Amino acid sequence: MIEQNMMDGVLQHEGGQERWSENVIVVDADYADRVAFNLIVNFERMLGRKIPAADMARWIDCVALDGGVSPVDNPEGNVSVVLIHEKDSKAFKHFVPASYSELHGKAFKDHLGEFVFSTVPVESLTTKDDLLLDVVQAVVGSKEVKRLMVVPNAEDGDCYDRLRQMLRHADDDKRITLFAMQPMAGGNFRQEILGYSLMQALGIRAAELESKM
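The structure assignment produced for this chain is given below.
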């Protein structure tokens, strides 16, 4: 289970009670950063121009939209964003803002609501996949959560398969969306292609791609 000090950094506190937002995004931050790098390299070659670092707020906004968050269905206007990263990793390399310490506890607000960031390093007693699974399990078991969006490392190891098994018994009233770079084996959740939201955050326009076809 999740260490209490980790939970303190992830959960909101309201009236002395710990609680989750109705909408929660859980991200393997190191994996997302790696995918962003690969997209930057590939699209710089394809488009013949420099691709800037991904806009974190824009990306998270796109993930939320893909996960079903909308102003109409999100009356509280809150989205918790949990970024899980290796302990020796201090910052994203291909997103802005980048520093985990600066992102932790910060928020931005737009038409979808207020997005509050928590950055959680992996401690020595666990692995990143185990920590991500523990966070997801805690979120799935929370009655107040209505929408869960997860960006796991679906390319290496068995994290995706373990998520599939865990989510088999998730409440059908929860809208759960898993993101990967290609269609994966299905389960009791929706799927979205991770690359689409990252392309938006990197400023890669559909018209640019069409011109190169």
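Interim note for the steering committee: The longest strand covers residues 113-122. The radius of gyration is 17 Å.
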